[in-house]
Every structure is written in structure tokens, then in C-alpha cells.
Write a structure and sequence with these properties.
Radius of gyration: 54 Å
Distance between the termini: 165 Å
Number of strands: 69
Largest sheet: 15 strands, mixed
Low-confidence stretches: 1-51, 147-158, 698-740
Oligomer: single chain
Length: 746
């Protein structure tokens, strides 16, 4: 009988297991076979052991090679390259002290072999990414085995290659990124080496790095060393005592810095075989000279750019060197016939100084230096030192040049031997200043803007552009009143970049404010005398005046436009007094003629300004004299005070002195007087008069030549009679009496 479906199932499952086992045995990396065991309970054959060979990677961490079987370790993990992503080693709190992995390698020129030691060793032409998370530290120590002698060598000592120690060694390109930090220290190894060493590019895109080596801090043989805009603190330093030690070195490549805080120190802080471009960040390049230093074919400097161009577009660059701060003598490449700028500053800030005092030191040395923007300060120390030297690297005298264009914010060069090398021609598109001393305190001379080359070797300090001092607050002219004493003509001005000076003749200037006494119009000249870093401002003028005081006179009026016809009519007088702009107090008074009398007391006198009563006014009436005094009139300057009082004809008064020729109108005069600030000078109003209509009394006769002194009232008519022959005499006598009374009252 055939097998039932249920009986076939175990055999079918067993067949499938056998087939799968055979396939797995044929797969790449599988073991030599599988041992099968019988399962008495199920009737199945199961694999007893599966043997596979792990994939290996060209990476050693510590002293262990990374394989597919050990992709992680204490403080590290590795992700192989896949799907277009580069191989990535993540360090998170990794710590190692030791020699690391060692291999015998040949130098890139193929001339000699050496032992290369590194705790992180990437021996492939491809790229490696090191991702930083947390704080990691590598300290390289010597290999106790001293490496391995070359096989087959009879003389082990002679054949033993040189040892080179690195914190990180990369045969391809290296990228450091992340938010953590890494200290790679191989500086304790006298045999030489680097904190970070790569044949290709070295890119620090993020995180903070401290790379310490005996020969190099960070080194690239043929690639670019780039510090990205998001980098943190990057320190590359050397500890050796030789004259060929570099903090950052791109031997046949470029250095590009876009951000971060970068410090590179060594016999040469930064040294490249190509170009240096700084777009941002803070760069500190420091030259450390060993104690054994005397002279060397390799000049000690903070930044060395022998065959390329140093370009600064942004950021700050501080280069403190020994013989040179910046050495950028652009040597012509093969086929080049003309000079190429060794230094171009488009923006940012560059400060370069030499510190050698025994002989010569140059702040910035280059063939052609062009400053288009930003700021530059170059200082040389030593008896033969220059701030800037631009010498033709081909040995041809007079071909080097310094070009300062209009966009420059500030260019300063100074040195004991000269601000700028005598062999250098200068083309400055902006106005400048030259000084005979380094400090810029003596011998200040203007340097006119000129596109033609000029020799500035006579200066020990130069400054471009020489910005003019300015008046931040200009002095203002004054309108003064004559006092008989000297008065300052202008307000005090304020200056930026110098000292404000004044003059009345445009020739002799002084810092003191000019004064004058006599009335008149004065022209005051002023300018700002520039300090050591500024030129004088342009001269400007302001006008001031001293004028005699204007004493406005009072005016008066009364309430009757025509003559009064009744002896009992009340007269209202009005006095208007303007207060001048200079007055502090006002005193106004009037004297009432004897034929009149006040119909009010002091409380009935109204004193107002702009319709409002002046409570500060003091009013007094003494006999025929009314006085109004205001002790503080400063608030009333430019306004008018109104004084109003009332009077009438005194009963039984005689009007003889005031009659007109027709003896029908009596004109009684009135006048106001004012003095200001207690001065003796008095100003008076015009003499006005209040008029009374009179007529001859009935029954009177002038035949006897007499006169009537009484004024009987008949209705609304004032009666008066006087001989015609005596009329002129009476009027003359009245005028003389009025004049005498005025003199007495004044």
C-alpha cells in the first residue's frame, strides 16, 4: 500500500532539512560540512555544529583587528562601508594606552621601510569616518618588542626599520565628526610620529580634537586638511626638539579653515605645500623653537606657505612666529613667468609678528601681498626687522610689491629697521600716515593715496587708511548779550580720534573755548587735531554774536477815546510791559498827576499775563506813585505783563496848566517807567494824556485880566474861564512844572 499523507510528512521534512544543509554547506564562508544527529523522539536530523570564517576589515582598534565577529568593543563600535556610506568607527568614551597595532610599511616615495604604530590603524586607500560621542583618549607608548626585524636579515640592527608612532594612522582619507572629543597623544615618542596621520585628506567636520605628536600634530601627505564650519576646538601640537616639526602640515596639499577654534604650534605652526584658505573661525599659529636652535634652512615661523597662496576671506588669524610671523614667499611654479601673490587678504583679521631679537625678524614676508579688505597688523622685532617684506623670490630686486586697495579696513606695519622693506614698492589706493618711530608717536607724515609705486622705506610705522578725526558733537554758536565782561562764544564740542581745537583767526588754534567782550558778530573756526592714528579733520566754522541788551519800553492807554466831559468820570489806565529774553526781574511804576487821584488801592490794581493773574506781582501805592515789582520774571520772558488801575479828576483841581490854546480841552499827561534786573537804566513809555472838555463859566469876564481857578460843574460841562492874553503863559508854566515833577520823581 502506498504511504498515507500523514506518513509522508516526516520524510518530506527530513528531505527539506538535508537540502537546506547542503545549500548552506556550499555557501561562501561555510564550514567544511555539518555533523547530523538522530533525534529519537522526532525522527529529525539536526545540525550539531556550523563553522564559518569571519570577515576581516583593514582596521585595528587598540591591538585588535576588527572583524565581522567583533564589531564592538569597550568604548567603540564599527560599521563597515555599505550602500555608499563610508566605513565608520564610533568612539564613545574610548580610552587606550599602549603602542597599538604595528605594521611594516614603505614610505610613499618608496625609498625606505619603517614600523608604523597606531592604536587606531586604518590600512586601506578608502575613507574612514571617526564619529565622536563623549570623551575619548589615546596615549601612545613604546612597543616593548621594538617591532620585528626584517626576515632573513643577518644584521638585525642595520635592517630594523625606523619606528613611527601615531594616535591615528589612515592610509586613505580621514573624517572626524560628531559632538564629542578626542585626545590623540603620540608626543611622548622620541622616534617621531603624529597625533593624526593620513595619506589623503583630513577633515574635521565636528567635535573637538587634540592631536599631539613628536613630528606633527595633524599631517596629510597628499590631501587637504580641512577644518569645517561646525568644528569645535582643534589643537595640533608637536613636542619634539628638531627643526622640522609642524603643528598642521599638508605636505603636498592645502589647508582650509572654515570655522572652529584652531591652534597649531610647532617649529612651523602651519606648513603646506599648496594653498592656505581661511574663511572663518579663529586661527592661532604659534612657533616654538627648540633650545638647540641656532639657524636652519627651514626658517622658524608660525605660518609657512612656500609654494601656494595664503588667502584670508574671513575669521581671525594670529601668527606669532620666531624669524617670521607669516612666510608666504610664493615661489614660481614650473612654467610661471610672472609673480603670483603670496598673500591675499579679502576680509577678516590678520595679526602677524616675529619674536626673534638677535638679528632680523619679519612680521609678514611675501613676494606680492595684496590687501583688498579686512585688517592686517604686521610687526617685526630685532635690529634688522621689518613689519612687511615683499621680495621677489626669483632674486630680482624691486619686483616685489605691496598693494593696498580701497576696501581695506586697517593696515599697520611696523619694525625697527623699517615698516616695509626698502626693496618693496607700495601702491596704496587710500590715504595713509607714516611715522619715524615704531610706536607711532613721532614724525607723523601724510602719505597721499597714489596708484603709482612708491618707496616707504623711511618709515618705521605706516598706517592705512588714515581715517580723519571727527567732531562727534560740534560746537554751537551763541547769541549773547553784552555784559562788559569776556564771554565764551561757543558751546564745548566733543571729538573722536583727536582733540577739539578752536580759533578766532583760523591760524592759531587752542583747546580752550574762545571768548570775546565787545558787541559784534564773531566767526569761530574749529577742527579736531588727529591723534597718533588719525589725520586732522577738516576745518569748519560757526557764528556767534554779542549784542547790546534790548530794553523794551512800556506802553500806556486809557479808557476814553475822546475828552471827558464830566468831572466825576472814572479813568481806567492800562500799562503793557514786554519782558525781554534776558531779564530776571521787572519793576514798573507810574506817577499820577496831582490833579488826579487813584480810585483804587493796591488790591484793586490788576496785574495779569495772558489773561491770568500774576500772584507773584508786588503792588504798592505811595501817594501819587503806583509800583509793580516782579522779583522772578524768568518764566515771563518773551511775554507781556498787563497792569490796570483806575483814577479820576480830583475835586476842586485846577486845570490851568493843561489847557489848550482854545481853552476848551485840558490834557493831563501820563507816562510809565520800567527797569530790569535792578539796573539803573530806565525805559519810559511815550507821554500820553487824558483829555477833559471844559468851557467858560457864565458871567465871567476877562477884562480885568484875571483867571478863575474853580471849575464849577453845570450838568456835564466843566466850566472854566481865563483871559485870552494869559493863555500861552499859563500853558508854558504848566509844561515847566510837569517837567520839574518828572525829574524829581525819576
Amino acid at each position: 500500500m502506498g504511504a498515507t499523507p500523514k506518513g509522508k510528512l516526516p520524510r518530506l521534512a527530513l528531505s527539506l532539512i538535508v537540502v537546506i544543509t547542503m545549500v548552506l554547506g556550499l555557501m561562501s564562508g561555510a564550514g567544511v560540512g555539518m555533523a547530523l544527529a538522530d533525534d529519537d523522539e522526532t525522527g529529525l536530523i539536526a545540525p550539531a555544529e556550523l563553522q564559518t570564517a569571519a570577515d576581516t576589515y583593514p582596521l585595528w582598534v587598540g591591538e585588535t583587528q576588527v572583524t565581522s565577529a567583533n564589531l564592538t568593543g569597550q568604548g567603540w563600535s564599527f560599521m563597515p562601508a555599505a550602500n555608499g556610506n563610508p566605513a565608520t568607527l564610533t568612539l564613545s568614551g574610548y580610552s587606550y594606552t599602549g603602542p597599538g597595532h604595528m605594521e611594516t610599511l614603505q614610505d610613499y616615495d618608496g625609498e625606505w621601510d619603517y614600523y608604523r604604530h597606531a592604536p587606531i590603524f586604518w590600512n586601506a586607500d578608502s575613507a574612514l569616518v571617526v564619529e565622536l560621542a563623549g570623551e575619548s583618549s589615546i596615549v601612545v607608548t613604546a612597543d616593548s618588542t621594538d617591532g620585528n626585524a626584517s626576515e632573513g636579515s643577518d644584521d638585525e640592527e642595520d635592517e630594523d626599520p625606523t619606528h613611527r608612532y601615531c594616535g591615528i594612522f589612515c592610509a586613505g582619507s580621514l573624517t572626524v565628526k560628531g559632538t564629542g572629543s578626542l585626545s590623540a597623544n603620540a608626543g611622548g615618542m622620541e622616534d617621531g610620529g603624529a597625533g593624526i596621520y593620513a595619506k589623503g585628506d583630513v577633515n574635521v567636520e565636528g567635535g573637538s580634537v587634540l592631536a599631539t605628536g613628536c613630528d606633527y600634530g595633524i599631517y596629510s601627505y597628499e590631501g587637504t586638511i580641512a577644518i569645517g564650519a561646525d568644528a569645535g576646538t582643534v589643537v595640533a601640537e608637536t613636542t619634539g626638539g628638531a627643526n622640522t616639526l609642524y603643528g598642521i602640515s599638508a605636505e603636498y596639499g592645502d589647508v582650509k579653515i572654515d570655522g572652529g577654534t584652531v591652534t597649531a604650534s610647532g617649529y612651523r605652526g602651519i606648513s603646506v605645500g599648496g594653498d592656505i584658505v581661511v574663511n572663518g573661525g579663529e586661527v592661532f599659529a604659534l612657533c616654538s623653537v627648540p633650545a638647540s636652535y641656532t639657524t636652519s634652512i627651514m626658517a622658524p615661523c608660525a605660518i609657512a606657505c612656500d609654494y601656494g597662496t595664503l588667502t584670508v576671506n574671513g575669521g581671525t588669524v594670529t601668527a606669532k612666529g620666531h624669524q617670521y610671523g607669516i612666510y608666504a614667499v610664493r615661489h614660481p611654479a614650473s612654467g610661471e613667468t610672472g609673480l603670483v601673490p603670496g598673500i591675499v587678504v579679502n576680509g577678516g583679521s590678520v595679526v602677524a609678528e616675529s619674536r626673534e631679537s638677535e638679528s632680523s625678524g619679519i612680521g609678514i614676508d611675501g613676494c606680492i601681498m595684496t590687501v583688498k579688505g579686512g585688517s592686517v597688523q604686521a610687526s617685526g622685532n630685532g635690529d634688522k626687522a621689518y613689519g612687511v617684506s615683499a621680495i621677489d623670490s626669483r632674486g630680482k630686486s624691486g619686483n616685489g610689491s605691496l598693494v593696498i586697495e580701497e576696501g581695506v579696513a586697517s593696515f599697520i606695519a611696523q619694525g625697527p629697521a623699517g615698516a616695509i622693506n626698502a626693496d618693496t614698492s607700495v601702491k596704496n589706493a587710500v590715504f595713509g600716515l607714516g611715522y619715524s618711530d615704531v610706536a607711532g608717536t613721532e614724525g607723523k607724515t601724510s602719505i597721499e593715496a597714489n596708484a603709482d609705486s612708491k618707496d616707504l622705506s623711511g618709515y618705521r610705522r605706516v598706517l592705512f587708511p588714515a581715517t580723519a578725526a571727527s567732531a562727534t558733537t560740534a560746537p554751537a554758536g551763541k547769541s549773547l548779550l553784552y555784559t562788559g565782561k569776556p564771554q565764551e562764544l561757543v558751546t564745548e564740542g566733543a571729538a573722536s580720534g583727536g582733540t577739539m581745537l578752536y580759533s578766532l583767526d583760523g591760524k592759531t588754534y587752542a583747546a580752550e573755548l574762545p571768548t570775546a567782550t565787545d558787541p559784534g558778530e564773531y566767526t569761530v573756526y574749529y577742527k579736531v587735531a588727529g591723534d597718533a592714528s588719525h589725520v586732522d579733520s577738516q576745518t569748519q566754522t560757526v557764528t556767534s554774536t554779542i549784542v547790546e541788551k534790548i530794553y523794551p519800553a512800556p506802553t500806556m492807554s486809557n479808557s476814553k477815546g475822546s475828552a471827558f466831559a464830566s468831572q466825576t468820570d472814572e479813568i481806567t489806565y492800562a500799562v503793557n510791559q514786554e519782558v525781554p529774553s534776558w531779564a530776571t526781574s521787572v519793576r514798573t511804576w507810574v506817577d499820577l498827576e496831582d490833579v488826579l487821584q487813584y480810585t483804587v488801592d493796591a488790591s484793586g490794581v490788576a496785574v495779569t499775563c495772558d489773561g491770568a493773574a500774576l500772584s507773584s506781582a508786588k503792588v504798592s501805592i505811595d501817594g501819587q506813585k503806583l509800583t509793580v515789582e516782579i522779583d522772578d520774571a524768568t518764566a515771563l520772558r518773551g511775554k507781556t505783563i498787563q497792569i490796570s488801575y483806575k483814577a479820576k479828576l480830583r475835586s476842586g483841581a485846577t486845570l490851568d496848566p493843561y489847557l489848550n490854546a482854545d481853552k476848551n480841552i485840558a490834557s493831563v499827561p501820563y507816562q510809565a517807567h520800567t527797569s530790569f534786573d535792578g539796573e539803573s537804566k530806565v525805559v519810559s513809555s511815550q507821554v500820553e494824556s487824558v483829555k477833559f472838555r471844559v468851557s467858560a463859566a457864565k458871567g465871567d469876564s476877562n477884562s480885568a485880566g484875571g483867571s478863575s481857578s474853580s471849575l464849577p460843574k453845570t450838568g456835564d460841562t466843566m466850566l472854566y474861564a481865563a483871559p485870552a492874553a494869559t493863555a500861552l503863559v499859563v500853558l508854558a508854566a504848566a509844561a515847566l512844572a510837569l517837567a520839574a515833577r518828572r525829574r524829581q520823581r525819576d
